[in-house]
């Protein structure tokens, strides 16, 4: 494993849409392993591949303080969502910036694992926010575009 450089705002790659993963091979596993190490080193709760300069639909996440909730999401999609929450959000690609966003309170996500198997995940609160934030990255959307108006 190795850490990779995190792309920061101002780099147009962050506005681009990522492509689906089709090959569940060593190259993908290397990317996932590197993203995991990069996320933990940066003390983030999630990281999308575009943030390390790779336009593929790949996300790693861990919303727990003790690193017990590590998740790998390949080709993730939100399949349902409920409620709403207004919380302060930040991003490793926008150091020092934060904004209150409006996100669903709960979401259900389907994603493939590193071997291509489909898995369903549920998240609420921070985890729901994180799913939404990271999947937005795959579509070139930054959290500041979700800033809640007048909050
Ligand atoms: Ni982010």
Characterization of the model:
The protein has helices at residues 26-41, 126-138, and strands at residues 46-48, 58-61, 71-82, 85-89, 99-103, 106-112, 118-124. The strands form two sheets. Strands 1-2-3-6-7 form a five-stranded antiparallel beta sheet. It has one domain (12-146): Peptide Deformylase. The protein has two helices and seven strands; from the N terminus they run αβββββββα. By secondary structure, the protein is an alpha+beta fold. The chain is globular, with a radius of gyration of 14 Å. Strand 6 and strand 7 form a beta hairpin. The structure holds nickel (II) ion (NI). Nickel (II) ion is lined by residues 91-93, 133, 137.
Major β-sheet annotation: 5 strands, antiparallel
Strand order of the largest sheet: 1-2-3-6-7
CATH class: Alpha Beta
The gyration radius over C-alpha positions equals 14 Å
- CATH homologous superfamily grouping: Peptide deformylase
- H-E string: HEEEEEEEH
Taking pLDDT < 50 over at least 5 consecutive residues as the criterion, the unreliable ranges are none
Alpha carbon gap, first and last residue? 41 Å
Topology readout:
Elements: H1 26-41, E1 46-48, E2 58-61, E3 71-82, E4 85-89, E5 99-103, E6 106-112, E7 118-124, H2 126-138
Antiparallel strand pairs: 1-2, 2-3, 3-6, 4-5, 6-7
Nickel (II) ion binds next to helix 2.
């Amino acid at each position: 494993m190795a850490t990779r450089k995190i792309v920061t705002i101002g780099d147009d790659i962050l506005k681009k849409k990522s492509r689906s993963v089709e090959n569940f091979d060593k190259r993908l596993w290397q990317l996932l392993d590197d993203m995991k190490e990069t996320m933990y080193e940066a003390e983030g709760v999630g990281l999308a591949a575009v943030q390390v300069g790779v336009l593929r639909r790949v996300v790693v996440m861990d919303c727990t303080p003790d690193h017990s909730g590590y998740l790998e999401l390949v080709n993730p999609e939100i399949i349902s969502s409920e409620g709403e929450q207004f919380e302060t959000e930040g991003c490793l690609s926008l150091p020092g910036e934060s904004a209150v966003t409006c996100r669903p309170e709960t979401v259900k996500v389907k994603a493939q694992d590193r071997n291509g198997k489909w898995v369903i995940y549920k998240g609420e609160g921070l985890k729901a926010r994180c799913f939404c934030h990271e999947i937005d990255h795959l579509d070139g959307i930054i959290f500041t575009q979700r800033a809640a108006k007048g909050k």
